[in-house]
Amino acid sequence: MNIESYKDLIIWQKSMDMVQLIYRQTKSFPNDERFGLVSQLRRAAVSVPSNIAEGYGRNSTQDYIRFLRIAIGSLCEVQTQLEIAFRENYMKKNEFAIISNLVTEIEKMTISLVKKLGTRQ
Questions:
Q1: Which of 41, 64, 89, 95 could staple 55 via S-S, CB 3.0–4.6 A?
Q2: Using an 8 Å Cβ cutoff, are 96 and 38 in contact?
């Protein structure tokens, strides 16, 4: 497959799916979490595809790698916040597992891309 846009990147597509799942899931969180965990989780999730896209749009491999690393950090943040939500019983085990597994998959793919790009420098 020829990559002509960040939208062609599987990690971007999967991270957009993750954002959508998180938005749907957090709609059922308690109202008192609206400005707390819901807001933080959504912002961290949105940061992932946003940083992938921004890095792709830069003119240097070094910048691209930097933004991918930021996305990896955001994925770690999402994973931590999902764990908090699960421990607080805001999510069922199967809901948590689906999103958590997707986050892990995206993280592994992003790390792999960073390594691949790093060898090109």
A1: 64
A2: no
